[in-house]
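lol so apparently i was supposed to do this last week
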Amino acid sequence: MNGCSRRAVAADVVFDGEKKHDDFAVVIEDAQIAALTPRSDLPSSIEVYNVPQGAWLAPGFIDIQVNGGGDVLFNADPTPAALAKIAQAHRKFGVTSFLPTLITDSDEAMVAALGAVGAVMAREPGILGIHLEGPFLSPQKPGVHRREFIRRPQAHHRQMLGAFREGVLLVTLAPEETPSGFIAELVAAGAKVSLGHSMATYEQTRAAMAEGLTGFTHLFNAMRPLSAREPGPVAAALESPRASYGMIVDGEHVAPAMLGLAMRGVGRPMVVSDAMPPVGGTKAEFDLLGARIVVRDGSCRTQEGALAGSSIEMASAVRNCVRLLGLPLEQARAQHLSTFHPATLIERPRNLRRGGLRRHFLRREVLIGRHRSLPKSAASSIQSNESRSEKLSAI
Ligand SMILES: [Zn+2]
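anyway here it is w/ zinc ion bound
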């Protein structure tokens, strides 16, 4: 009489984000997950979709750094329609929630991006808020961000950021380029603050953490490196249980040995894609704020050969955690790297644990092969990443 539709998805392994269940099924009522149950306990009347043999059924990924996808760059088109296309492009790689990321741009672009995210969130539940990567960055570590837009915060920026109430606001900044108290002010207004594109010293990083900074954006890339007498942000991140650090696991941005080191830190490593328009798109090149970026051997590069974001998607990045870093799939999966840790940074873990995870679980099912017998497509993408990293290390 309630008219609700009940169906089940069954798999050899169902991973609930914390533990594995062999030969289990997820029962779905309408759009909600109602139960996890052994496949043998399913009533004969229920419609069952059996995922291919050997595949895992696991929670969707949360990606906190998505510049674009489906041939769309958020900076170039900060509109609700563009966000819907980006969301669609990433969904097919298992991303059920993400933060669209605006890199350093004009005030007008920032206002448009905040407005677009605020407007689209109600109808795109996978969009959790916005990540502003810049513009308060170090001119010494711009990466591919346009130098003319890198600037220090002004009063109107405080107002603009403080007024965003629709969802998560994550701000990547260089603490040494912002006035004392600015980070605390953002945190008090509800924002999450992450260090990135920064030459902060260890002491400056610790001071920023004391103000409430908890994130580190693409750890190792575009920040002061770890060195003997100046530990810098990397050491500050790895020694803090409260630190969440994003890692681009494409075999190109960071050597696997360094990622392995980060995995041994006491904080919360996260997989991020730093994805650009080619992810889920059809074009092998795009315009990044006036610079021509071409996908070569699977990586996004400027004419000069510098890396400009990535063309990897989350499913391949998680596979790389297994293949390149030797992590067990359970650890590479949900709770540590691609679901619980990013959720913790943006303060969604309670929501995930209280049934939120179950809701999150199957908005889009993701199939990850057992790591000893990866599907052919996964194996070949890992293979090509490995050969790319060999090529790089030989240069
Ligand atoms: Zn960056």
